[in-house]
Amino acid sequence: MSEYLKQALEKLNQNGSFGQKEDAMKHAVRKTLEDFCRQDEEFAQAVAQGGSFGDCMKKVAKGVGNSISDLDAYRKAVQFYFPGAEIRMQMTIDLIGAAAAEKPQTMGPMILDITQFL
């Protein structure tokens, strides 16, 4: 683990005071920022050298009415630490889903009469 990554993860896990909106979003935003830090060393450095996670969450919650999409919350958080950065999200559909993990039903043992083949 790089030093910047270590510092960034420590910074993101510092406790702070959060308002109601920030508190509702902080766990998902923190996890996503941690993932981004693991993906990109330069972003980890920006987090390590940037503002506090509490200030980041205030920026994310600023101007939010009753709701904000996850993608918009993550974008605002990323841009707090790295202005101008963008995030991309890819979603796919799996029509089989959990059914793929199910075992197909098998028939019980079969009894063959060898005389039928003679």
List strands and helices in order, with pairings.
Layout: H1 3-12, H2 20-39, H3 41-49, H4 53-61, H5 70-81
Uncertain segments of ≥5 residues (pLDDT<50)? none
Q: What about the largest sheet?
A: none
Taken as a percent bin, the fraction of beta residues is under 5%
Distance between the termini: 71 Å
Q: Note the total helix count.
A: 5
H/E series: HHHHH
The coarse overall form would be elongated
Provide the helix percentage.
40-55%
Radius of gyration: 25 Å
Counted beta strands: 0
On the 0 to 100 scale, the average pLDDT is 89
Helix-strand makeup class? mainly alpha
Describe the structure.
The protein is an all-alpha fold. The protein is built from five helices and no strands. Helix 2 (20-39) crosses helix 5 (70-81). The longest helix is centred in the first third of the chain and has 20 residues, at 20-39. The model has no long low-confidence stretch (mean pLDDT 89).
